[in-house]
Amino acid sequence: MDWYESSGAHVLAARSTVTYHELCTRAASPGAVLEADSRQIDLDVPRTGVSLYRFVLHEDVNEDVDLDLCPLAPHFDALKRILLAYSLRNMRVGYVQGHADVVSFLMGLTSSTADDKAGQYDDEQVFWIYAVLMERIFPSDFFARMPKLQGFHVDMDVFARLIQSKVPALASVLAPDDLHVLSSLLASKWFMTVWVGEIPLPALTAYWHYMLVGNVETSSVAHFIMALSLLELATDAILASVVRILSVHRENDGDASFGYKVALEHAAHVDANTISSLLRFNKYMLTDAVVESMRADVRSNPHFIEQEVCALHGITHFDRSQLEHLQVEFQFLVATSHHPSSSSLSTTATTTTLAMGPTSVARRSQTIAADGINKDVLRQILVR
To answer: Which ranges carry the Rab-GAP TBC domain (predicted)?
Structure first.
């Protein structure tokens, strides 16, 4: 399956100022990769035996059986090389725990199926396809180390809101707290793994193909379409479990945990044709623009603003009041940059904001929908 070309990974590789092989060389130098990333990669790679057997060697193995790891030695080396190189390329993210299995899946899907070439793949192509996933499909702070997984937590809240509006049959019977717990549990299980290990391989391949090769307007929100589709498929069974619980306990207790288990069980048996049809149909009418608007609304929550301020406080010499002022300034610039007369507004944004009193600044920070601070841009300003 040629995801390297169809996903645009080849374009990302061509535009990069540093090649994959250069990153591999640098990553091999002592201290080049953060110790926390290097240590976690060393722990995770040997644990991917089952994934490598299933995805790369195409052998169905039992997780409870001791595996012969000798045939996996070259694949362990390639996997570690890819993960170290990417943690060096994207220091803001580094290594995401559990993504050794995600990359193992990509190694298998880009490998040859011919008997004489089984298990052969181009690890450079795997690297760039993984880069597309991390840098073009998900928001830049989705897997970020600081603030930790900020984008993921934003999408977790967006997912809860989408369940309320798109799966009303389920939302109407679950208490708000249960609905929030259910969406959080499923997002943690599904979004972080990108469904690797959570659904059958044919269905997983169909989902990734849609995500990497599909319509540009929906590929970046494919995880929401997928999650809502799987949850709706399991809704009848979840509702039945709620009825059973209520008949026994006479109270709304345990709905989230039961719903979570039922949803995972249904997902584990979904077929590729069903997934392909649901994704193409996109009955929820989700687009990148719709979801970005919801994300902006979530990011304006003081909780997320506080997280960004705390994170920046740890890497700059500014005090909290200065950072809060910068936060408002960036929000204002982001908002006015989309205004029809943004060219004139942006030149006066600094003067306007600095002239505002504390009360006005606070009021503006509550009314402007922010995309969040781009710390890469901010760092360039701070070092001047």
So the answer is: 1-215
